[in-house]
């Protein structure tokens, strides 16, 4: 497992994050032994980031028990925003009161006195971003939070938040959490370029598209068991991309899931896939994606199956950059060279 810095901080985080959303059964259940085995396998592979949330059922409490005696070895990340009590209008949102109460509850559940990375779970349109950023910075100054991140928010809002933080000496978002996979590439339009410009790490959730990219829906016998994805909802494009991942996997001697996970990292060095698993065997397979580098031809074949268009303004700007009449022939020629190198996934 390789490590990178979290955003522009000095915190070292592994290339694969572990998603503990599936740790939902309460402590004392028969699943605790399996949860412990999964956490041990992730740590043995070199992984050090555990991602959970206040809204993930019993996940925080389970992690608090499992991490007893070894909590400092891990980068523990959790989230707030979602409701703690549907009957209370102030038990949700990104305002100072919900942040304060949610943070205290997460600290108790996780049996720790600090959170390594505290994520805003989703944009709250009613709370001014100034209030959220100041409240987060206050929590950082108390030592209860070390770093902050944001999930499920538009690029303009994240950009404004980090600009405010820079101007006012507050803690800036070091991480961005978004859905990202071969079937869902829309973050490449605005969010991913913004994160790269601010030096933010990108935690990619759903990198296997609910298991579609693992190939389990393409088998003649079907996925088997209950799934979060309705097999009847899959389109011809979904199946085509899953087949492309399987073909590449067969050629490389790996699994389709490992190919799909490796692809997310091929797009940007900032991306860290969040690998979840229903059991130890599945987690072990996903961990096999660590260090897997896809050949440029394989990346092109996978992306040609997705039929993705960046859209305006990205495509329009790229066309202008390659036109001599916009920036001049010398600049246009250099831009065409850079794009050709990027298309082959080489170094510019």
UniProtKB/TrEMBL annotation:
GO cellular component term, pick one: cytosol
Q: Which CDD domains match?
A: AKR_AKR9A_9B
Q: What Pfam families does UniProt report for this protein, alphabetically?
A: Aldo_ket_red (PF00248)
SUPFAM superfamilies referenced in this protein's UniProt entry, alphabetically: NAD(P)-linked oxidoreductase
One example GO MF annotation: oxidoreductase activity
Domain NADP-dependent oxidoreductase, first and last residues per copy: 16-305
Q: What is this protein called?
A: Aryl-alcohol dehydrogenase-like predicted oxidoreductase
Q: Which organism is it from?
A: Thermocatellispora tengchongensis
